Amino acid sequence: MARAKILGRLTWRVATVAAVRDETSSARTIVLDVPDWPGHLPGQHVDVRLTAPDGYSTQRSYSIASAPEGNRLELTVDVLPDGEVSPYLARVLSVGDPLEIRGPIGGWFVWDPEKPEPVQLIGGGSGVVPLMAMIRARETVGAQTPFRLLYSARGPETIFYRDELRRSSENGSGLSVTYAYTREVPQGWERPPGRVDASLLTQITWAPEQEPISFVCGPTGFVETVADLLVSAGHDPARIRTERFGPSGGGS
């Protein structure tokens, strides 16, 4: 049975685009219907394969944004400069189109709703996508696990899922959301533009003595910096889970 599950994850499936919606001027969420989808855990990803008429094929990995539920899943794709796959997914792919996917993939960077410890989510740019799957999964199962999200982005116009995050943080569910803008801030914003630093982490995140599990996702430099800052602040390295993306891995 275990071997059958592994082989299932390595099998390419043809999904159908059920809907698309823009998140920002450069990012789009793609809703897929996937027959016989085996289900996924919040934090996992899939491989996406594109094949040209001449037979040329290329593939990239994209985090799943949706909570585990039925045969439908969501991917949010941000167009990368000089990207080979992301421009097609975010600007060309339309409702009714087929899309080859393989997965789910990953077993370390996942959240278990049965675990009671506080959860600290820290995302840089599109690194918020798998963290959103965790937030959605928490709401779907009605978990009371305390969640905090620290979301670093270039500016207000680059935030994914803004309205949904606002609603989730205001509905009394126990989700706290904090934004850190690196280039542009809204008018009247208290903190000047800047990267996530030790001071902000101390103010916003769970204290080490509360023994949270931390999920950090984003560009390699962002993830390494944040992970180092968490360890320096006294967090147990074994309770820090990281997922990196960049030119050598992740979507493009």
From TrEMBL:
Co-factor requirement: FAD
GO molecular function per UniProt: 2 iron, 2 sulfur cluster binding; oxidoreductase activity
Residue intervals passing through the bilayer: none
Protein keywords: 2Fe-2S, Iron, Iron-sulfur, Metal-binding
PANTHER family, A to Z: NADH OXIDOREDUCTASE HCR, PROTEIN RFBI
Protein name per its UniProtKB record: Ferredoxin-NADP reductase
Superkingdom as given in the UniProt entry: Bacteria
Entries under InterPro entries matching the protein: Cbr1-like_FAD-bd_dom, FAD-bd_FR_type, Flavoprot_Pyr_Nucl_cyt_Rdtase, FNR_nucleotide-bd, MRET, OxRdtase_FAD/NAD-bd, Riboflavin_synthase-like_b-brl
Pfam families named among the record's database cross-references: FAD_binding_6, NAD_binding_1
Protein species of origin: Streptosporangium subroseum
Domain FAD-binding FR-type: 10-111
